Amino acid sequence: MNAAQLAFYMAIGLAGAAFLVGALRAARRSTAVRRPTPIELLIGFVTDFFDTLGIGSFAPTTAIYKLRRMVPDEMIPGTLNVGHTPSAITEALIFVTAILVDPILLVSMVGSAAVGAWLGAGVVAGLPRRAIQVTMGIALLIAGVAFAAKNLGAFPEYGTAMSLAGWKFGLAVGINFVLGALMSAGIGLYAPCMVTLALLGMHPLAAFPIMMGACALLQPVASLRFFQSGRFAWGPSLGLAFGGVCGVLIAAYIVKSLPLFWLRWMVILVITYTAFAMLRSAARAER
Predict the structure, then answer these.
(1) In whole numbers, what is the pLDDT of the chain averaged over residues?
(2) N or C: which terminus of the chain carries fewer CB neighbours within 10 A?
């Protein structure tokens, strides 16, 4: 294990430890802690199972919560970040076994995403219900466009670079800062980060540890903000956490791959409907 790998795993370990301490402290302060129901565990299992196989977890989870009215709209961003953190860390530890990307670029992009998540989560935790509904509606529409582009083969081809320099380095780090902040509002990082790195000419082997590492670090950081504000739902979050880790392990070690083309189109339809439902709720609240 080289120095970059060691630093990467140490950072994830520290973030995971901080997440666990924050969760325990929040649980002591809260009177709303409860065990997850079987359906909440199932949601965690299914969404993170398909996240491991490339579908993503934030948009499908948001759609389920909205359609079933399981979580108040203003608590969905916090619930997503808190609940999916253990599975994000698990994915990173399983899949990022060799860091081939330039370590300076990796650390810079992962760090900027974490800083963006900390600032973004602080803003989201204080937003009123209608603002969160509008934000989540737009986030779901963005996710739908990204899914459709991937299914239609519209994503740009990858290059061969394993590092970036000059303005490309600065642009990549800056964009990941914004993506980290947006992830606190429920916009997944994988697809936009992948497109950014592809447009800058990077190899997929270089993009993978950046995306995985960013999510494994920024979600615990964002969760600390939500632990402070209490703006997340305990039962659904625990369902995502425990069910999600099981889903990741089964997808990674047993299933490994599935034909997902038609499943993505189904997800696109569901999250598009959910996006308009969010925006409609926001419009009704304004009236």
Answers:
(1) 83
(2) C
